[in-house]
Structure formats: C-alpha cells, structure tokens
Amino acid sequence: MYIAQILEKLRKTYPHQHEFHQAVTELLHSLAPVLKNPIYQKHAILERLVEPDREIFFRVAWMDDAGKIQVNRGCRIEFNAAIGPYKGGLRFHPSVNESIIKFLGFEQIFKNALTTLNMGGAKGGSDFDPKGKSDAEIMRFCQAFMDELYRHIGALTDVPAGDIGVGAREIGYLFGRYKKLVNRFDGVLTGKGLDWGGSLVRKEATGYGCVYFAQEMLGARKEDLAGKICSVSGSGNVAIYTIEKLHEVGAIPVTASDSKGMIYDSEGIDLSLLKEIKEVRGGRIEEYAQHKRNAQYTDVKDYKSGTNGVWSVPCFAAFPSATQNELSLADAHTLLNNGCKCVVEGANMPSSTKAAEVFLKAKICYGPGKAANAGGVAVSGLEMAQNASMHPWTFEVVDRKLRTIMKEIFENSAQTAQEFNDPTNLVLGSNIAGFRKVANAMIDQGY
Ligand code: GLU
C-alpha cells in the first residue's frame, strides 16, 4: 500500500520520467519485506527519498571552433546527503534529460551506501555531445559548465566525477576552471590526473570491481571464471577494464561494442588493440575487425533480435557495460538459452525490468549494477580520502582496498538476502542493505 501510494504520486507528478520511474519501481518493490517495519512510513522515508534535495539546471553557452555560440543545458541533481557529501558522476551525452539524471542520482544513493564509505548521492550532466568535438571545444564547454556548477559543489559539499562522455580530459578542464574560480586546490572532483591529486586504480576501478564481484558471487557457488567465455558490451572505461581483469583471471572475453555495432573475437579480445582504437584514437569498434582478421564485426542494423548483438554470443558470463536498458527481455532469454550462468552489471540499470526478473527467476548469479559496479565510486571515495590526508597510496594498496570493498558489498548483499529468505536474490539484498543504512541515518538526523 505504502509503495503503491508513492509510485502513483510519482507517476502523476512526473508522468514522462520513464527511466526514473523504472529505477524507483525496481527499488521499492524489492524493499517490500523491510517496509513491513512501520518506522519507515512514520518518518516518511520513501516520500523524502524519491524527491531530490535540490535540482540545479543551467544554461551552458560556449563558442565552437567556427566562432558560433552554442547553447546546451547543464544540471546537477543533489539527491540525498544523509551519510556523506553528495557524490556521483557527470554524464555528457545527447540523450541526457531530467529523467535519466534522476534515475542515476537516485541509484547513486544506494550504491554509495553499499561501498562502506560515507558518500551521499547525486548526478549531473549535459546534453552536450563530446563526439566529434575538438579538444579546444571540449575545454570551452567544460569551462562554461563549471562557471555555473562551481557555486554548488565543494570537497565536503558535492563531489562530481566522470560517467559516459566525461573522462580524464573533461575532469582536467573542469578542475582547472574550478581552481581558478575559487582560488583553492581541493578534492572537489574525482577521477583527477595522477600528478594532481588523482588516485591510482580509479580508471580501472569499475571494471576491476565488476570482475571481483563476479568472483565473489561465483566463489560462493564453488565456481570461477578461469577458462570461461565472457561477453562484454560497450568499449568505454568500464568495458575496457572489465576485459583487462577478465584476461588477468584467465577468462576469455570475446566481445565489445559501441553505438554503431559489435565485434566478436573468438580468440579473446586483443586488449592493446582495443585500447589503441578507443583510448588513443577515439575511433569506432568497427576498426578492430579491420586490424584483426578473425574478428567479426556486426553493424547495429544487422542485429537479429534484442538490443545488442553481443548477447547472442554464447557465454558463461555476461558483463553489460554500455548504458541503461541495453539488455532486453529477448536478450535475457537468448543468454539463458545459450547457457549463461552469470550476469554482472557494469553499466547503470543495463537490464530492462523484465530481463532482470528473468535472471532472478532463473537463480543464476545476477549482480545488479548498484552492487556490482560500485567499485568506481568506491575508489572515488578512496581518492577523496587521499586528497584529505594529502598522502597518495600505491596501486597495490588501492587495489587491495577495492577488492575488500567488493567482497564486503557481496557479503552484505548476500547476508541481507538470506535474512529476508531469498538467498540468491542480490537485487533484494543490495537494495535493502543500502536502503537501511540511508534510512536509519535519515531517522537519526530528523527531517
Ligand atoms: N559514474 C560512476 C557511477 O555511476 C562513478 C561516480 C563517481 O565516481 O562519483 O557510479
């Protein structure tokens, strides 16, 4: 009843925010067993969680290389700061709208709570498309974006980071402008360059963390990844470092994709070729097949069914690492029919609601994004700790801490799932674990 009331109100107030509804509906349904405790309704916890603390929208006017003034929309949605300063990435992509940033910001609250660190939830971004822009255009856009954002953020207030379309280059330009505007060098952004306050392992963290999480899930069932075929979607930061770690643990990652198509390499993805194409040249995944003869390239328009061609490749484990709703119900059935035993979400909400239901029903190892991809923001938290102490840690130290955090996230989620009599359901386990931490802090602190 309480859940239905909240969802109904949300649908009426924000009728067009589909991704946001999807994220809230998924979370609230899995909270049903814990919401039997009347304390949460008494303190209006759900009403307060689904409405962000504040939403900041602004115009970003910048000049392109031809001297023409361009205008984009920017925003920062600060959702919840019950357990720490607002924390979450910035996404620059033409699809960005209020619904997408709200779903991401909402999920960030619970993901961050799971990391064991003290971080609240936020997200921001712009409909600016970095693809095809020159470095100078990217810099002018980032400077204009920060001219508005700087007054709302701070090392102990709100700490943005990267997401789709925002990597080391963008963080550099954003940080440079922030520092000039406030005349202070502090840890206001994470994902910084290694020479100026960044943390080792931050770049690799989400991908490595996903593989560590997969190892924990599989280990609990006395299985592992060694020698196993894995499908990975995407070819950004998350996908590249998932592939790197999969190679390291002896698995065979055979796919990668971008918005134009996918590649299948039965010998295992050549990591240095992939990095050369994507990290150095900023090229298309299609080029991979031009350099490696045995690899097959399939264009999106030739995908036979589902959302992404990579899901039709038979695999033991699937790592959706591209974007929201990239794995449909049809894809979920195809994966299971081909013998897939493990799905680990590197992207945020990559499985549609129906696809996720199918994975839960099949009782395979299913690691939902809020738990499985929390390694990225966890190392952001470690970057904040290093900045605050002015003392950087070695690669080994950060990597060991990341590993421990992923293990703790798995154990916390699995134990919570057990407590609520649904032991294989890590959606329920991770959602309830994250929710309880945030809700209890909200109750402690008053409304
Ligand atoms: N964008 C990443 C995420 O979805 C990282 C956020 C951060 O490091 O603050 O969790």
TrEMBL record:
Gene Ontology molecular function, alphabetical: glutamate dehydrogenase (NADP+) activity
Domain Glutamate/phenylalanine/leucine/valine/L-tryptophan dehydrogenase C-terminal: 199-446
Pfam families: ELFV_dehydrog (PF00208), ELFV_dehydrog_N (PF02812)
Coiled-coil residue windows: none
Alphabetical UniProt keywords: Oxidoreductase
Subunit-structure text: Homohexamer.
Family: Belongs to the Glu/Leu/Phe/Val dehydrogenases family.
Annotated protein name in UniProt: Glutamate dehydrogenase
Organism: Helicobacter baculiformis
